[in-house]
Amino acid sequence: MVLEFLDIIKVLPPVGAIVLISFFISILITIVYKFTTNQKFMKELHAEMKSLRQEIKNTKDTAQATALNKRLMEKTMQQVMQSMKSTFITIIPIFMIFGWLSGNLAFAQVTPDTEFTASITFDNDVTSTASIESETLQILTNKTESINQNTALWKLKGEQGTHEILYTFEDETYARDVIITNDWQYADPHLEKERTLFGIINLGDKNPIKPDSKIKRVAVDLQPTRPFGNFELFGWKPGWLATYFFFTLLLTFPIRKLMKVH
């Protein structure tokens, strides 16, 4: 159901899709939170915490301020414990949505007959050559390129469809797909070495680059999505993740107030 909803909103521009998803997640979290917490207790808890903060602000007695801070911390922990159940319930659908966003909004797709680049990045100083092959793409540069500043780079273009690129360095060959389309769609552009969480959960690719390889990353160099276009904040252009967090924070407070959630 969640993924069907996400597919429907692909008709929107990226910023519109992120706003709608942020709104959906804010409502989901708020509803679950409301019905999995004791709202009467939470209301009383918030009132006590507000009163304690005011007392801490007004007191000039260090000992009294320390005691009040201790009570405030106890109340904060009670609030956190009350919120745990709702967090566990919502974490799976939120991870699903994050995965969808990463796979659909993190990068701009390659469009038909538009030039794009592919690259191999190396860990250390390498002064050799690397090559690529593709049966269905037009390679605009030499198939074999020199490695400069730890990177070998190629320019390509092609017609609509899914295409495979083979990257070769010494005795290693790796494959990466590129989807050329006018729709919201792209294949995972990066192939890296194995990455795990606590040495157990795989966070990277199913067939990663060899651990002892001189290659750091193989990539189709897709441009990151900028939902706000050329808008900059001190030289920083917000991507999909920052945009999502911005709108989620912006929407959560009025939704909670509207639904009278404490």
How would you portray this structure in words?
The structure is a single chain. The chain is α+β, with helices and mostly antiparallel strands. It has 2 domains: 14-106 and 240-258, no CATH class; 116-220, no CATH class. 43% of the residues lie in helices and 21% in strands. The protein has 5 helices and 11 strands, in the order ααααβββββββββββα. A 5-stranded antiparallel sheet has the order 3-5-1-11-8, with no helix packed on it. A 4-stranded antiparallel sheet has the order 4-2-6-7, with no helix packed on it. Strands 9-10 form a two-stranded antiparallel sheet. β6 and β7 form a beta hairpin. The longest helix is centred in the N-terminal third of the chain and has 43 residues, at 62-104. The radius of gyration is 25 Å and the shape is elongated. The protein starts with a helix and ends with a helix. The relative contact order is 0.15. The model has no long low-confidence stretch (mean pLDDT 87).
Topology:
Layout: H1 2-8, H2 14-36, H3 39-58, H4 62-104, E1 116-122, E2 129-133, E3 138-139, E4 144-146, E5 151-157, E6 161-169, E7 172-180, E8 190-192, E9 196-197, E10 201-202, E11 215-220, H5 240-258
Antiparallel strand pairs: 1-5, 1-11, 2-4, 2-6, 3-5, 6-7, 8-11, 9-10
Helix pairs in contact: 2-4, 2-5, 3-4
How many H/I helices? 5
- Give the CA-based shape: elongated
| Helix content, binned percent | 40-55%
End-to-end separation in angstroms reads 29 Å
Number of strands: 11
Please mark out the parts with pLDDT under 50 across 5 or more consecutive residues, or reply none.
Answer: none
Strand-residue fraction? 15-25%
In angstroms, what is the radius of gyration?
25 Å
